[in-house]
Amino acid sequence: MQTKNRKIKKEELELWKKVTEHDKMIGQYTTSVEENIIQKKPPVISKMNKDNLKVKDKKSSFFEQDYQINKRMKLKLERGLIRPEIKLDLHGKTLSEAKKSLSQFIKTSINNNIRCILVITGKKKTLNGSRGLIRENLPLWLKENELLHYILFHCYAIKKDGDDGARYILLRKKDKVFYE
Question: pTM of the predicted model, to two decimals?
């Protein structure tokens, strides 16, 4: 079904400008109006908003530009289509030993140009059974500053690789690792 290209009315354009007056303008308003051509005005940004935008840009621009994982890669990892190149088994280790060996393992994997790893933590037991402490703490360790710079994305493994008792971790390329 095709839509007609009609010129918008002056009232519609003014209403749209009021609705979007606090939005950041990417393009420009249309100038083809039924009655008169209306001059476009850039959105007014107060000093406080400018400062907030600068802070947000500095924090998020590094993550959003070159280093963010795309949806296709994310889906491939979640479905197990990207096969892990190497595994780490944390069964039988204490929390501190597991965290230390995970940290060393990730750093050596980055240095050896390995992109996808599998970390086996152990399965969560049944309803009344015990909890897997390493399994619960692994996502928290990956978010800490020590390892955050090395990791692009992580998720539970597929059933044949350990289901919820294992995690795929997608690492950054060696030259894309950043430090604060």
Answer: 0.60
Q: Are 98 and 131 in contact (CB under 8 A)?
A: no
Estimate to the nearest angstrom the gap between the alpha carbon of 34 and the chain centroid. Answer: 44
More confident residue, 17 or 26: 17
Tokens at residue 83, please?
A: 């096969």
- Fold topology of 71-176: Ribosomal Protein S8; Chain: A, domain 1 (3.30.1370)
Per the DSSP assignment, residues forming a β-bridge with 117 are 86, 169
* Distance (Å, whole) CA 94 – CA 85: 25
Characterize the bridge pairing of strands 151-156 and 116-120.
unpaired
Q: Using alpha carbons only, what angle is made at residue 72 by residues 71 and 76, rounded to the nearest 5 degrees?
A: 115
Of 33, 22, 39, 138, nearest to 89 by C-alpha is: 138
Which residues are paired to 166 by β-bridges?
A: 120
Q: How far is CA 70 from the centre of its chain?
A: 8
Tens-digit pLDDT profile for residues 81-139: 999 999 999 988 999 999 999 999 999 999 999 999 999 998 766 566 667 888 889 99
Q: Where are the domains of the chain?
A: 10-64, 71-176
